[in-house]
Each structure stands twice: as C-alpha cells, then as structure tokens.
Design brief:
Layout (H helix, E strand, L loop, with lengths): L1 H32 L5 H6 L9 H10 L14 H30 L13 H23 L8 H9 L1 H9 L1 H13 L2 H13 L1
Helix pairs in contact: 1-3, 1-4, 1-5, 4-5, 4-6, 5-9, 6-7
C-alpha cells in the first residue's frame, strides 16, 4: 500500500514536471520571436501551472502517457511553427536522456526497475519521480508524434506544409480518438518501458 501511494505521488509530480518543461521552452521562444506582443501575455508564460492539462495528468498517472496544455500561440509564419515543434520534441528527448543518465550512473538502478527496501522514503520518492520523468517524457515524445494540430508534430507540419496542416485540423477529432485508444490500451507505455530497460 505504501509503495502504491509513493508511485501515485511520484507519477503526479513527474507528470507535472514533464508538462511544464515541455511547454515552457516553446512559450519562451515564441515570446522571443514575437517581441511586440502584449506585455501582460508575455508575463503569463511564467504561470507554470497553466501548462498542466488535468486530463493529460490523469493519463500520466494511470498510463504514464499523457499530454500537456500548450500556450495559446497565434503563429502567422511557417518558420516559427517549425521552430516550436522541434523545440517541444527536443525538450522531451533531453528530459528522457538526463533522467536516464541519473538513474543509470547516479543511482545505479537496474533494468528491472526494482527498488531497495532499505533506502529512506525521501530517496524512494525521488527515485520513483526520476523513473516516471523518464517514462512519461518518452511516452509524451511518442504522443507528440501524432499529427494533432496543437502537438509538436502538428506544429512541424504547419511549418512545412500549411495545406497539410489544414487537412489534419479537419481530421483532428478522429486522430485524437485513435491516440486516446492507443494510450488507454497502454501500447505507448509498453513501448516506452521496453526502450527504458534497453538503456538501463
């Protein structure tokens, strides 16, 4: 029971961290690329809780695969779309690599993701948070490969071909339903876990 509660808390914290670190760099770069924006809107990017999507967080806790709430962009040029899409992908990939490096070389966790019963509660929570950051960031990277209009792949498509972007907007509902089923059946989680064990 104690371990399950720790896992729940760790997944909640990790999900929030991944969402914030995924969306904040994009919002920051967007503001740098649009210096004439309303100062009030510029300050809003530092309200980090806005990047946490409640449904995405529930999916992160239950399935270790969710999505964040994007900053409300008003993008007029293809270059900015492409930069933001690539930034989002890079931020998730870097989070995965850093957390995996700490788990492997800092903590020395094994590929079975087993925990030691002799370590303190605080150390156990931190260990689980790192495991979930690695798992959720990789899963969210895969989720963002789906061509949903507000996801990183959607931004990349908008940056490369606006005509194809309007096509995915027309099919947005269908794509989201497919994505939700893939998450609910834990296909992404299973794939992410398999990749994690290879790195460890």
């Amino acid at each position: 029971m104690k371990i399950q509660l720790i896992r729940l808390i760790a997944a909640f914290i990790a999900g929030g961290i991944v969402m914030i670190l995924h969306e904040f760099p994009k919002a920051y770069i967007y503001n740098r690329l649009n210096p004439n924006q309303d100062p009030k809107k510029k300050r809003n990017i530092y309200k980090l809780h806005h990047y946490v999507d409640p449904i995405g967080l529930i999916l992160c806790i239950t399935n270790q695969a969710g999505f964040s709430k994007p900053y409300m962009y008003r993008i007029k040029d293809k270059r900015t779309n492409l930069i933001l899409g690539i930034t989002g992908m890079i931020s998730l990939f870097v989070m995965f690599l850093v957390s995996m490096a700490v788990l492997r070389f800092g903590i020395g966790i094994n590929s079975n993701l087993n925990y030691s019963e002799t370590i303190s509660i605080v150390s156990l929570v931190l260990q689980f948070i790192l495991v979930y950051i690695a798992l959720i960031s990789l899963s969210m990277f895969i989720v963002n490969l789906f061509p949903v209009s507000t996801f990183d792949m959607g931004l990349c498509i908008a940056g490369i071909s606006p005509s194809k972007y309007f096509l995915i907007i027309r099919n947005d509902y269908f794509i989201k339903m497919v994505l939700l089923l893939v998450i609910m059946f834990q296909f992404i989680t299973s794939f992410s876990t398999a990749i994690m064990t290879l790195f460890l």
